[in-house]
Amino acid sequence: MKTMILFFSSALLLGSLLTGNWKVDASKAKVQFSIKGPFGTVHGTFKGLTAEINFNEKSPSGGSITASIDPNTVSTGIGLRNHDLKSKEEWLDTKKYPKISFHSKRIEKAKDGFVAHGELTLKDVTKPIELPFTFTGKGNGGVFKGHFTIKRSDFHLGKPGGSVGEEITLDLEVPATR
């Protein structure tokens, strides 16, 4: 009986290591963005990332990423701008749209890391995106880093044209442990 319990415990542990289930350290995760504004580039951050990451760098096709962030945590360093981003319909309108989310459909190996193909939902729009990322593992920990660009007009952010740039660049740094 002890042998059977030891066998099943070992199998469960080995299974969790091989499938690559990762626990995100939200307090250390960085979600940053930048966009050209009328007076230079605006940089900002979001906090409170929640994510479920199932990833094995030796077999990425079996993995998945589901993540979300509370847009009400947006911070650009300027209180009035933060208020407008959170409250105005043309921007994030966080009361009406309380979550920004991403769900991968597949993950594949790429030249310089990996690519998660999935859907980004922001406001009332869900669009397919490719999220290139790297993974650096060490022991039972690792860091996922991603960099991608979206068009703000695709997600009904801001007014067409104007002095705000069309592209929003996002950078992610997500530490995780097994």
Give the CATH H-level superfamily.
Lipid/polyisoprenoid-binding, YceI-like
Q: Name the helix and strand elements from N-terminus to C-terminus, one letter apiece.
A: HEEEEEHEEEEE
Low-confidence stretches: 1-19
Mean pLDDT: 90
Q: Which strand order do you get reading across the main beta sheet?
A: 1-4-5-6-7-8-9-10
C-alpha end-to-end distance:
28 Å
CATH fold topology: Lipocalin
How many strand elements? 10
Q: Provide the gyration radius in Å.
A: 19 Å
Largest sheet properties:
8 strands, antiparallel, barrel
Structural class by sheet pairing and helices:
alpha+beta
Question: What is the approximate shape?
Answer: globular
CATH class placement:
Mainly Beta
CATH architecture identity:
Beta Barrel
Work out the count of structural domains. Answer: 1
Describe, in plain words, how this protein is organized in 3D.
- By secondary structure, the chain is of the alpha+beta class.
- It has one domain: Lipocalin (Beta Barrel).
- An eight-stranded antiparallel barrel has the order 1-4-5-6-7-8-9-10.
- It is globular.
- It starts with a helix and ends with a strand.
- The N terminus is likely disordered.
